[in-house]
Amino acid sequence: MTGLQDRLTPEQVEEFGREMDELRRRIVDDLGAEDVEYIHNIIKTQRGLEVTGRALMYAGFFPPAWLAGVGALSLAKILDNMEIGHNVMHGQYDWTRDPALSSQRFEWDNVAPAENWRHSHNYIHHTYTNIVDKDRDVGYGILRIDPAQKWHPYYLGNPVYATLLAIFFQWGVMLHDLEVDRLVKGERKWSEFAEERRRIARKMGRQIGKDYVLFPVLTGPLAPLTLAGNATANLVRNLWAFGIIFCGHFPADVESFSEEETEQESRGQWYLRQILGSANITGGSLFHILSGNLSHQIEHHLFPDIPARRYPQIAGEVRAICEKYGLPYNTGPLRKQLWSVAKKIVKFALPGSGDDKQEPATLERDRKPAAA
Protein backbone atom coordinates (compact mmCIF):
# COMPACT_ATOMS: atom_id res chain seq x y z
CA MET A 1 0.00 0.00 0.00
CA THR A 2 1.42 3.38 -0.89
CA GLY A 3 0.69 6.72 0.70
CA LEU A 4 0.25 9.89 -1.30
CA GLN A 5 3.11 12.33 -1.63
CA ASP A 6 0.90 15.40 -1.76
CA ARG A 7 -1.59 16.73 0.76
CA LEU A 8 -4.62 18.95 0.33
CA THR A 9 -5.52 21.49 2.96
CA PRO A 10 -9.13 21.44 4.19
CA GLU A 11 -9.79 24.49 2.03
CA GLN A 12 -8.36 22.78 -1.04
CA VAL A 13 -10.41 19.65 -0.37
CA GLU A 14 -13.60 21.67 -0.29
CA GLU A 15 -12.68 23.61 -3.43
CA PHE A 16 -11.88 20.31 -5.12
CA GLY A 17 -15.32 19.07 -4.11
CA ARG A 18 -16.99 22.17 -5.50
CA GLU A 19 -15.26 21.68 -8.84
CA MET A 20 -16.46 18.08 -8.98
CA ASP A 21 -20.01 19.15 -8.08
CA GLU A 22 -19.93 21.73 -10.84
CA LEU A 23 -18.71 19.15 -13.35
CA ARG A 24 -21.51 16.82 -12.31
CA ARG A 25 -24.11 19.59 -12.62
CA ARG A 26 -23.00 20.39 -16.16
CA ILE A 27 -23.28 16.72 -17.18
CA VAL A 28 -26.76 16.35 -15.65
CA ASP A 29 -27.97 19.55 -17.32
CA ASP A 30 -26.76 18.29 -20.70
CA LEU A 31 -28.44 14.87 -20.59
CA GLY A 32 -30.96 14.32 -23.35
CA ALA A 33 -31.99 12.56 -26.54
CA GLU A 34 -28.47 11.49 -27.54
CA ASP A 35 -28.05 9.56 -24.30
CA VAL A 36 -31.38 7.79 -24.76
CA GLU A 37 -30.60 6.97 -28.39
CA TYR A 38 -27.22 5.59 -27.38
CA ILE A 39 -28.52 3.15 -24.77
CA HIS A 40 -31.39 2.06 -27.03
CA ASN A 41 -28.88 1.31 -29.81
CA ILE A 42 -26.73 -0.69 -27.39
CA ILE A 43 -29.79 -2.69 -26.29
CA LYS A 44 -30.74 -3.38 -29.92
CA THR A 45 -27.18 -4.52 -30.64
CA GLN A 46 -27.17 -6.77 -27.59
CA ARG A 47 -30.47 -8.38 -28.54
CA GLY A 48 -29.31 -8.87 -32.12
CA LEU A 49 -26.14 -10.58 -30.93
CA GLU A 50 -28.08 -12.84 -28.58
CA VAL A 51 -30.57 -13.88 -31.28
CA THR A 52 -27.70 -14.48 -33.70
CA GLY A 53 -25.79 -16.54 -31.15
CA ARG A 54 -28.82 -18.65 -30.23
CA ALA A 55 -29.67 -19.20 -33.90
CA LEU A 56 -26.16 -20.30 -34.82
CA MET A 57 -26.37 -23.05 -32.21
CA TYR A 58 -28.83 -24.82 -34.55
CA ALA A 59 -25.87 -25.22 -36.92
CA GLY A 60 -23.54 -26.22 -34.11
CA PHE A 61 -22.48 -29.39 -35.92
CA PHE A 62 -20.47 -27.05 -38.18
CA PRO A 63 -17.51 -25.84 -36.04
CA PRO A 64 -17.26 -22.33 -37.56
CA ALA A 65 -20.97 -21.78 -36.88
CA TRP A 66 -20.59 -23.00 -33.29
CA LEU A 67 -17.62 -20.69 -32.71
CA ALA A 68 -19.46 -17.75 -34.27
CA GLY A 69 -22.47 -18.51 -32.09
CA VAL A 70 -20.35 -18.62 -28.95
CA GLY A 71 -18.69 -15.35 -29.96
CA ALA A 72 -21.99 -13.57 -30.57
CA LEU A 73 -23.52 -14.91 -27.35
CA SER A 74 -20.41 -13.95 -25.36
CA LEU A 75 -20.60 -10.37 -26.65
CA ALA A 76 -24.33 -10.27 -25.91
CA LYS A 77 -23.75 -11.34 -22.30
CA ILE A 78 -20.88 -8.86 -21.89
CA LEU A 79 -22.98 -5.98 -23.21
CA ASP A 80 -25.95 -7.03 -21.09
CA ASN A 81 -23.92 -7.16 -17.89
CA MET A 82 -21.47 -4.31 -18.43
CA GLU A 83 -22.80 -1.46 -20.57
CA ILE A 84 -26.51 -2.13 -20.04
CA GLY A 85 -27.25 -3.95 -16.77
CA HIS A 86 -24.57 -2.46 -14.53
CA ASN A 87 -25.25 1.07 -15.73
CA VAL A 88 -29.05 0.92 -15.86
CA MET A 89 -29.19 -0.58 -12.35
CA HIS A 90 -27.08 2.33 -11.13
CA GLY A 91 -29.98 4.62 -12.01
CA GLN A 92 -28.08 6.22 -14.88
CA TYR A 93 -31.24 6.37 -16.98
CA ASP A 94 -33.92 6.80 -14.31
CA TRP A 95 -34.32 10.41 -15.44
CA THR A 96 -35.86 9.14 -18.71
CA ARG A 97 -38.88 7.67 -16.83
CA ASP A 98 -38.68 4.73 -19.26
CA PRO A 99 -39.79 1.55 -17.42
CA ALA A 100 -37.36 -0.51 -19.53
CA LEU A 101 -34.50 1.64 -18.21
CA SER A 102 -35.64 1.75 -14.59
CA SER A 103 -32.95 0.84 -12.08
CA GLN A 104 -35.56 -0.78 -9.83
CA ARG A 105 -37.15 -2.94 -12.55
CA PHE A 106 -34.19 -4.04 -14.65
CA GLU A 107 -33.01 -7.64 -14.34
CA TRP A 108 -29.82 -8.82 -16.03
CA ASP A 109 -28.53 -12.05 -17.59
CA ASN A 110 -26.66 -13.12 -14.47
CA VAL A 111 -27.29 -15.52 -11.59
CA ALA A 112 -26.93 -12.61 -9.13
CA PRO A 113 -30.40 -11.14 -8.48
CA ALA A 114 -30.54 -7.46 -9.39
CA GLU A 115 -32.04 -6.49 -6.03
CA ASN A 116 -29.25 -8.16 -4.07
CA TRP A 117 -26.64 -6.62 -6.35
CA ARG A 118 -28.07 -3.11 -5.96
CA HIS A 119 -27.54 -3.42 -2.22
CA SER A 120 -24.04 -4.93 -2.21
CA HIS A 121 -22.77 -2.80 -5.09
CA ASN A 122 -24.74 0.44 -5.38
CA TYR A 123 -25.03 0.98 -1.66
CA ILE A 124 -22.22 -0.85 0.14
CA HIS A 125 -19.43 -0.54 -2.42
CA HIS A 126 -20.15 2.96 -3.68
CA THR A 127 -20.78 4.36 -0.20
CA TYR A 128 -17.75 2.77 1.46
CA THR A 129 -15.37 2.55 -1.50
CA ASN A 130 -12.06 1.00 -0.38
CA ILE A 131 -12.81 1.37 3.32
CA VAL A 132 -11.32 -1.79 4.82
CA ASP A 133 -13.89 -3.89 6.70
CA LYS A 134 -16.75 -1.83 5.23
CA ASP A 135 -16.38 -2.20 1.46
CA ARG A 136 -16.83 -5.91 0.84
CA ASP A 137 -15.37 -5.54 -2.65
CA VAL A 138 -11.94 -5.31 -0.97
CA GLY A 139 -11.02 -8.96 -1.46
CA TYR A 140 -14.64 -10.02 -2.02
CA GLY A 141 -14.48 -11.85 1.32
CA ILE A 142 -12.14 -14.33 -0.37
CA LEU A 143 -8.82 -12.66 -1.21
CA ARG A 144 -6.19 -10.74 0.65
CA ILE A 145 -5.63 -7.76 -1.59
CA ASP A 146 -4.54 -5.10 0.90
CA PRO A 147 -1.85 -4.98 3.64
CA ALA A 148 -4.46 -3.83 6.17
CA GLN A 149 -6.01 -7.30 5.93
CA LYS A 150 -4.32 -9.44 8.60
CA TRP A 151 -2.42 -12.34 7.05
CA HIS A 152 -3.62 -15.90 7.70
CA PRO A 153 -2.34 -19.20 6.26
CA TYR A 154 -5.62 -19.39 4.33
CA TYR A 155 -4.34 -16.60 2.07
CA LEU A 156 -1.57 -18.81 0.71
CA GLY A 157 -4.27 -19.91 -1.72
CA ASN A 158 -4.80 -16.36 -2.99
CA PRO A 159 -3.82 -17.13 -6.62
CA VAL A 160 -6.06 -20.22 -6.68
CA TYR A 161 -9.01 -18.34 -5.17
CA ALA A 162 -8.57 -15.51 -7.66
CA THR A 163 -8.49 -17.92 -10.58
CA LEU A 164 -11.64 -19.69 -9.40
CA LEU A 165 -13.37 -16.35 -8.78
CA ALA A 166 -12.53 -15.25 -12.34
CA ILE A 167 -13.90 -18.48 -13.83
CA PHE A 168 -17.08 -18.46 -11.75
CA PHE A 169 -17.38 -14.70 -11.35
CA GLN A 170 -21.16 -14.43 -11.72
CA TRP A 171 -21.54 -17.04 -8.97
CA GLY A 172 -19.14 -15.10 -6.76
CA VAL A 173 -21.22 -11.97 -7.31
CA MET A 174 -24.33 -14.00 -6.51
CA LEU A 175 -22.88 -15.09 -3.14
CA HIS A 176 -21.40 -11.67 -2.38
CA ASP A 177 -24.46 -10.31 -0.61
CA LEU A 178 -24.71 -13.40 1.62
CA GLU A 179 -21.41 -12.48 3.32
CA VAL A 180 -20.41 -16.16 3.34
CA ASP A 181 -17.06 -15.43 4.99
CA ARG A 182 -18.84 -13.86 7.95
CA LEU A 183 -21.28 -16.74 8.11
CA VAL A 184 -18.34 -19.15 8.34
CA LYS A 185 -16.79 -17.06 11.13
CA GLY A 186 -20.07 -16.97 13.03
CA GLU A 187 -20.34 -13.19 12.73
CA ARG A 188 -23.67 -13.44 10.89
CA LYS A 189 -26.52 -15.96 11.03
CA TRP A 190 -27.89 -17.86 8.04
CA SER A 191 -31.42 -16.87 9.07
CA GLU A 192 -30.54 -13.18 8.56
CA PHE A 193 -30.36 -13.72 4.80
CA ALA A 194 -33.66 -15.52 4.23
CA GLU A 195 -34.99 -13.04 1.67
CA GLU A 196 -31.67 -12.80 -0.15
CA ARG A 197 -31.54 -16.61 -0.36
CA ARG A 198 -35.06 -16.78 -1.79
CA ARG A 199 -34.15 -14.27 -4.50
CA ILE A 200 -30.97 -16.20 -5.29
CA ALA A 201 -32.84 -19.51 -5.56
CA ARG A 202 -35.39 -18.02 -7.95
CA LYS A 203 -32.80 -16.30 -10.12
CA MET A 204 -30.43 -19.25 -10.16
CA GLY A 205 -33.27 -21.53 -11.25
CA ARG A 206 -34.19 -19.21 -14.12
CA GLN A 207 -30.61 -18.83 -15.34
CA ILE A 208 -29.77 -22.54 -15.15
CA GLY A 209 -33.07 -23.40 -16.78
CA LYS A 210 -32.48 -20.95 -19.63
CA ASP A 211 -28.83 -21.64 -20.47
CA TYR A 212 -28.51 -25.31 -19.55
CA VAL A 213 -31.99 -26.77 -20.10
CA LEU A 214 -34.36 -24.78 -22.32
CA PHE A 215 -32.06 -23.59 -25.11
CA PRO A 216 -30.10 -26.85 -25.33
CA VAL A 217 -33.36 -28.84 -25.51
CA LEU A 218 -34.65 -26.56 -28.28
CA THR A 219 -31.71 -27.59 -30.48
CA GLY A 220 -32.64 -31.27 -30.20
CA PRO A 221 -29.73 -33.64 -30.95
CA LEU A 222 -27.32 -30.67 -30.78
CA ALA A 223 -28.21 -30.10 -27.11
CA PRO A 224 -24.73 -31.06 -25.76
CA LEU A 225 -23.07 -28.63 -28.15
CA THR A 226 -25.53 -25.88 -27.26
CA LEU A 227 -25.02 -26.47 -23.57
CA ALA A 228 -21.24 -26.30 -24.08
CA GLY A 229 -21.65 -23.13 -26.13
CA ASN A 230 -23.74 -21.44 -23.46
CA ALA A 231 -21.26 -22.48 -20.76
CA THR A 232 -18.39 -21.10 -22.84
CA ALA A 233 -20.19 -17.78 -23.36
CA ASN A 234 -20.78 -17.50 -19.61
CA LEU A 235 -17.10 -18.27 -18.99
CA VAL A 236 -15.96 -15.58 -21.45
CA ARG A 237 -18.27 -13.04 -19.81
CA ASN A 238 -17.04 -14.05 -16.33
CA LEU A 239 -13.35 -13.69 -17.23
CA TRP A 240 -13.93 -10.36 -18.96
CA ALA A 241 -15.96 -8.88 -16.12
CA PHE A 242 -13.46 -10.08 -13.51
CA GLY A 243 -10.53 -8.58 -15.41
CA ILE A 244 -12.18 -5.20 -15.98
CA ILE A 245 -13.46 -4.86 -12.42
CA PHE A 246 -10.22 -5.93 -10.74
CA CYS A 247 -8.16 -3.65 -12.99
CA GLY A 248 -10.35 -0.74 -11.90
CA HIS A 249 -9.99 -1.42 -8.18
CA PHE A 250 -6.77 -3.23 -7.29
CA PRO A 251 -3.72 -2.15 -9.35
CA ALA A 252 -0.64 -0.84 -7.56
CA ASP A 253 -1.00 2.57 -5.90
CA VAL A 254 -4.77 2.32 -5.50
CA GLU A 255 -5.32 3.26 -1.85
CA SER A 256 -7.55 2.02 0.94
CA PHE A 257 -8.84 3.74 4.06
CA SER A 258 -9.87 3.11 7.62
CA GLU A 259 -13.34 3.51 9.09
CA GLU A 260 -12.08 6.10 11.58
CA GLU A 261 -10.73 8.57 9.04
CA THR A 262 -13.89 8.51 6.93
CA GLU A 263 -16.48 8.78 9.71
CA GLN A 264 -17.34 12.43 9.12
CA GLU A 265 -15.98 13.05 5.66
CA SER A 266 -17.25 15.99 3.67
CA ARG A 267 -18.45 15.85 0.08
CA GLY A 268 -14.99 16.94 -1.06
CA GLN A 269 -13.33 14.19 0.98
CA TRP A 270 -15.73 11.63 -0.49
CA TYR A 271 -14.74 12.71 -4.00
CA LEU A 272 -11.08 12.56 -2.99
CA ARG A 273 -11.48 9.01 -1.71
CA GLN A 274 -12.98 7.95 -5.03
CA ILE A 275 -9.97 9.34 -6.91
CA LEU A 276 -7.46 7.63 -4.64
CA GLY A 277 -9.31 4.31 -4.59
CA SER A 278 -9.78 3.82 -8.35
CA ALA A 279 -7.83 3.15 -11.54
CA ASN A 280 -8.62 3.55 -15.23
CA ILE A 281 -7.76 1.39 -18.25
CA THR A 282 -6.79 2.98 -21.55
CA GLY A 283 -8.22 1.72 -24.82
CA GLY A 284 -10.34 2.47 -27.87
CA SER A 285 -14.05 3.20 -28.17
CA LEU A 286 -15.12 -0.44 -28.59
CA PHE A 287 -13.02 -1.50 -25.62
CA HIS A 288 -14.71 1.16 -23.46
CA ILE A 289 -18.19 0.05 -24.56
CA LEU A 290 -17.45 -3.61 -23.85
CA SER A 291 -16.10 -2.66 -20.43
CA GLY A 292 -19.34 -0.80 -19.68
CA ASN A 293 -17.04 2.23 -19.53
CA LEU A 294 -15.72 0.80 -16.26
CA SER A 295 -12.41 1.34 -17.99
CA HIS A 296 -13.15 4.84 -16.63
CA GLN A 297 -13.49 3.55 -13.07
CA ILE A 298 -12.31 6.86 -11.62
CA GLU A 299 -15.11 8.77 -13.33
CA HIS A 300 -17.59 6.02 -12.45
CA HIS A 301 -16.74 6.19 -8.76
CA LEU A 302 -17.06 9.96 -8.85
CA PHE A 303 -20.40 9.95 -10.70
CA PRO A 304 -21.95 6.44 -10.50
CA ASP A 305 -25.44 7.57 -11.57
CA ILE A 306 -24.33 9.54 -14.65
CA PRO A 307 -24.67 7.68 -18.00
CA ALA A 308 -21.39 5.87 -18.51
CA ARG A 309 -21.11 7.01 -22.13
CA ARG A 310 -20.25 10.43 -20.66
CA TYR A 311 -17.15 9.20 -18.82
CA PRO A 312 -14.78 9.36 -21.83
CA GLN A 313 -16.02 12.89 -22.51
CA ILE A 314 -15.10 14.16 -19.05
CA ALA A 315 -12.03 12.03 -18.33
CA GLY A 316 -9.64 14.70 -19.60
CA GLU A 317 -11.26 17.34 -17.40
CA VAL A 318 -11.17 15.08 -14.33
CA ARG A 319 -7.51 14.38 -14.97
CA ALA A 320 -6.75 18.10 -15.34
CA ILE A 321 -8.46 18.82 -12.01
CA CYS A 322 -6.39 16.07 -10.37
CA GLU A 323 -3.20 17.58 -11.80
CA LYS A 324 -4.25 21.01 -10.56
CA TYR A 325 -4.42 19.70 -6.99
CA GLY A 326 -1.40 17.41 -7.23
CA LEU A 327 -3.51 14.26 -7.04
CA PRO A 328 -2.70 10.98 -8.82
CA TYR A 329 -4.74 9.79 -11.79
CA ASN A 330 -4.04 6.06 -12.00
CA THR A 331 -4.41 4.86 -15.59
CA GLY A 332 -2.72 2.48 -18.01
CA PRO A 333 -3.31 -0.21 -20.65
CA LEU A 334 -5.14 -3.42 -19.74
CA ARG A 335 -1.97 -5.54 -19.79
CA LYS A 336 -0.24 -3.18 -17.34
CA GLN A 337 -3.15 -2.97 -14.92
CA LEU A 338 -3.85 -6.71 -15.11
CA TRP A 339 -0.21 -7.58 -14.44
CA SER A 340 -0.20 -5.16 -11.52
CA VAL A 341 -3.27 -6.85 -10.04
CA ALA A 342 -1.79 -10.33 -10.56
CA LYS A 343 1.41 -9.36 -8.74
CA LYS A 344 -0.63 -7.94 -5.89
CA ILE A 345 -2.67 -11.14 -5.53
CA VAL A 346 0.52 -13.22 -5.34
CA LYS A 347 2.34 -10.76 -3.09
CA PHE A 348 -0.38 -10.62 -0.44
CA ALA A 349 -0.70 -14.39 -0.38
CA LEU A 350 2.61 -14.52 1.47
CA PRO A 351 3.30 -13.86 5.16
CA GLY A 352 5.07 -10.60 5.85
CA SER A 353 3.91 -9.17 2.52
CA GLY A 354 3.38 -5.45 2.58
CA ASP A 355 3.34 -4.57 6.23
CA ASP A 356 0.66 -6.25 8.30
CA LYS A 357 0.89 -3.44 10.83
CA GLN A 358 0.62 -0.67 8.27
CA GLU A 359 -2.54 1.39 8.56
CA PRO A 360 -4.73 2.08 5.57
CA ALA A 361 -3.61 5.18 3.69
CA THR A 362 -4.86 8.37 5.29
CA LEU A 363 -5.93 11.52 3.53
CA GLU A 364 -3.73 13.62 5.78
CA ARG A 365 -0.60 11.60 6.52
CA ASP A 366 2.87 12.22 5.10
CA ARG A 367 1.96 14.59 2.31
CA LYS A 368 3.26 17.95 1.26
CA PRO A 369 0.82 20.80 0.61
CA ALA A 370 -0.25 20.96 -3.04
CA ALA A 371 0.26 24.14 -5.01
CA ALA A 372 -2.55 26.61 -4.45
From TrEMBL:
Residues 64-331 form the Fatty acid desaturase domain. Pfam families: FA_desaturase. GO terms for molecular function: oxidoreductase activity, acting on paired donors, with oxidation of a pair of donors resulting in the reduction of molecular oxygen to two molecules of water. It comes from the Bacteria. GO terms for biological process: lipid metabolic process. InterPro entries: FA_desaturase_dom, Fatty_acid_desaturase. GO terms for cellular component: membrane. Residues 354-372 have a biased composition (Basic and acidic residues). Residues 352-372 are annotated as: Disordered. This is Fatty acid desaturase. It comes from Prauserella rugosa.
